[in-house]
Amino acid sequence: MVSPPKIANPAALGLAGFALTTFLLSAKNAGWPVGDAFLGFAFFYGGAAQLLAGMWEFPSGNTFGALAFSSYGAFWLGTGFWAMFVTPKNPNDLAYILFAWMVFTLYMTIEAVRHTALPVKLVFIFLSLTFILLWVGAGFGVPSMIQFGGYAGIITAALAFYASWKAVHDAHPSLPV
Q1: Is the dihedral of CA 108, 112, 114, 115 positive or negative?
Q2: pLDDT, tens digit (0-9, with 9 covering 90-100), for 109-137
Q3: Does any domain span residue 67?
Q4: How confident is residue 174, by pLDDT bands cut at 50, 70 and 90?
Q5: Count of domains in the chain?
Q6: Nearest alpha-carbon partner for 146 in 21, 31, 18
Q7: CB 112 within 8 Å of CB 127
Q8: 3-state secondary structure the chain
Q9: Cα 94 to chain centroid, rounded
Q10: How large is the average pLDDT for residues 135-140?
Q11: Between the chain's N and C termini, which has fewer beta carbons within 10 Å?
């Protein structure tokens, strides 16, 4: 019997797409002069590439990775679409969107803390903090919380970049670093 070919760990791609797109939007939320640099990446790297990573997690049997990457890929696609095409925006839209994603992220954080490696645990803990701060900022009209959420998101992105690198490195420990 011929065994199926081994596929690469899709988490490396999913984490990288999440990290880069999160960094760009978080820099904007922190007040850095990046404009809407995140938009294209929301559709293609944070969105499509991460969604693909989620689909590739399904055959590996990784339900957590499949749900996380597919969902956050859809988050980026939806966020990009909302930012570009939903006009005029209801002032409450963002608060409701952030609240829903905060709830999802909190229960995913519980599972990440129970079942994943330390780098992924830290990504989810800081992502939860990011969504909480952004929701408070948008929901209660506290601009400083949006800025703090931006900085928490930058930390989240840095942790996700590290987790992506670790997935690549662990897959090929003989490669020079």
Answers
A1: positive
A2: 999 999 999 999 999 999 999 999 999 99
A3: yes
A4: confident
A5: 1
A6: 31
A7: no
A8: CCCCCCCCCCHHHHHHHHHHHHHHHHHHHCCCCCCCCHHHHHHHHHHHHHHHHHHHHHHHCCHHHHHHHHHHHHHHHHHHHHHHHCCCCCCCHHHHHHHHHHHHHHHHHHHHHHHCCHHHHHHHHHHHHHHHHHHHHHHCCCHHHHHHHHHHHHHHHHHHHHHHHHHHHHHCCCCCC
A9: 17
A10: 97
A11: N
User: pTM of whole model > 0.70?
Assistant: yes
| Residue at 175 is within a domain | no
Q: Which two tokens stand for residue 74?
A: 């859809």
Residue 18 identity (one-letter amino acid): F
Whether residue 1 is contained in a domain is answered as no
Give the integer Cα–Cα distance in Å for 177 and 175. 6
Domain range for 109:
11-170
Taking the C-alpha atoms of residue 71 and residue 82, their distance in angstroms, rounded to an integer, is 16
